[in-house]
Amino acid sequence: MKSNFILGLTLLIGAGVSQAQNLPESPDPGKCYVKCITKDEFKTVDETIEVYPAYTKLEVVPATYRTVEERVLIKEASKKLVYVPATYETITVPYVKKEGRTDLKVNPASFGSDSRTFETYPKTSGWEYRETACDSPNKEDCMVACFVEYPAQFKDVKYTTLANDASTSNIPIPESSASYTKRVIKTPARMDEVEIPAQYATIKKQVIANPARTKSVTVPAKSSTVTRTVLDKKGGLTTWEEVDCGLLNSNVLPIFYELGSARITPASKKIIDNTLLPLLNSKPVSIELASHTDSRGNDDFNKSLSQQRANAVVNYLVSKGISRSRLTAKGYGETRLVNRCSNGVECSEAQHQKNRRTEFRVINN
């Protein structure tokens, strides 16, 4: 990483003041900067088109009948009058011996508190230029312009509010009551009409249950789905991002796989969450994920297995909300061993384990 910094410093000296003004300002010695240029992002959409319209056809449903029973009058009803004398009862009649009154009570006003937020300084923004070091011989690849926004400033002001104004409430003083008794008519004398019921018989007849009608039958439309790729987000130059110089080299992730498997274990997911997710969420950089195997087993199988393992890490990061366009997966099989344990060489399990590794490094977009 030291050689990268020296190369970047040499490019700055040779470029002149006008060129350097487009690079990050006031870089720290030993720091590395990556130019992040977002790629065009695409998405696949399914569009459904109607290839045959829906239509309606009619069918005739004939009328149906049902048998019902009907009660018919065969002798009309009549009435007779019966005299009923009046009846009496004794009741108690209450009266007010002394009337009540109502006094008033004063309820004082009550208060509360509230606050209001005022903007004391507006939101501002502007362009800033930064510089970095990179391996490209073209100085334009090592420059970026950053558009920076500074948030507005606010202040909270507290004040007193009126919760309830002064009011009055009534205090009732009950009245004094007494009673007396008297006899009253319970039921007055009357003439009752006594019904002489009518006489009925039951007959049967057929009536229409459902009249003849037409029934609509809808023949559904026929559709076809067309899949097409559309531009979801236009890419372009964004910013220079400061990263640790060590992240530009290959960094081994302590991710362990089951023998012959590309499944990410819960322990490995925790390592990814603690190592890669914070970096990708805090900086708009892209990374390359490279997986390797030891020399044991078939070469073609190891190459395929390493690619599956790299793809598994990429898919897990995508499930956490990272754009797939920022991730590159490469499987190298057993082509990049870190020790002497190649085909036919006897090695311990610990030595073989060093070759079964997953690496990542920050790359220029």
Question: How does this model look, in words?
Answer:
- It contains five helices and 22 strands.
- With 365 residues, the chain is α+β, with helices and mostly antiparallel strands.
- A four-stranded mixed sheet has the order 19-22-20-21. It has a two-stranded antiparallel ribbon with strand order 1-18.
Secondary structure: elements and pairs:
Elements (H helix, E strand, L loop, with lengths): L1 H14 L1 H4 L11 E7 L2 E12 L2 E7 L2 E12 L2 E7 L2 E12 L2 E7 L2 E12 L2 E8 L11 E8 L2 E12 L2 E7 L2 E12 L2 E7 L2 E12 L2 E7 L2 E12 L2 E8 L7 E3 L12 H17 L3 E6 L7 H21 L7 E5 L17 H7 L2 E6 L2
Parallel strand pairs: 20-21
Antiparallel strand pairs: 1-18, 2-17, 3-16, 4-15, 5-14, 6-13, 7-12, 8-11, 9-10, 19-22, 20-22
Name a few traits of the molecule:
365 residues, alpha+beta, four-stranded mixed β-sheet, two-stranded antiparallel sheet, 17% helix
| Percentage of residues assigned to helices | 10-25%
Instruction: Please work out how many helical segments DSSP would assign.
Output: 5
| Beta-strand content | over 45%
Give the integer mean of the pLDDT values.
78
| Strand order within the widest beta sheet | 19-22-20-21
Name the shape in a single word. Answer: elongated
Oligomer: single chain
Q: Work out the radius of gyration.
A: 46 Å
Q: Give the low-confidence spans.
A: 1-21
Please provide the count of β strands.
22
**For the terminal residues, how far apart are their CA atoms?**
19 Å
Topology pattern, helix = H, strand = E: HHEEEEEEEEEEEEEEEEEEEHEHEHE
Structural class, from secondary structure content?
alpha+beta
> How is the main sheet built?
4 strands, mixed
